[in-house]
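Researcher: Structure prediction, please.
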Amino acid sequence: MKVLVVLCHPLESSFNAKIAKTVCGAVRATGNTVVFRDLYRDSFDPVLSEDELKRKYSFDEGVQSYMDEVKDADVLVFIHPDWWGQVPALLKGWLDRVFRPGVAYDYEGDDFLPKRLDRLLTGKKGIVYCTTNRAERREIHPLAVIWQEDIFEYCGIEGFCRIFYSVHESTSSQRKSWLGSVIEDISSLLLSR
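Model: Predicted structure follows.
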């Protein structure tokens, strides 16, 4: 299987980068193929221009490459911090430009009649690892809702979002435990397919 791993954190020494490295290692350990993309190191341009939106297509070769990688992947893994209850702007721009009609979803139906949503990523699995300094509360974290309901479900991806809470207060032992859960998630997902 092919696993696309998308990291969005500006610091190469971040815990997010460590999670990404752990995911990639776990994928390789199961004998599967990993495609790793670091949006900051790729200098991804997150701006969806008016022209690109109107023509419903991107001539940007980087965006085209990402779209192909999404289509080719069996599993999509996203790793990012919680910034003000949202994904970083760079990742939001990536989603705007890459998870577009014709790639992640489309609408089918005759002109001037109601359209049917066509989930183009049905059959794919997805995992999100999000770090936050926010303490865990009883309610579901807003990013879990956004990823699971607003993105994955809309595009047909079966997946979940794992939030690592209070990262700023976490100990080395806690972080090792979290990385262990990442290995378990990936191994379980890839060995069960």
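Model: The chain has a mean pLDDT of 95.
Researcher: Thanks, that helps.
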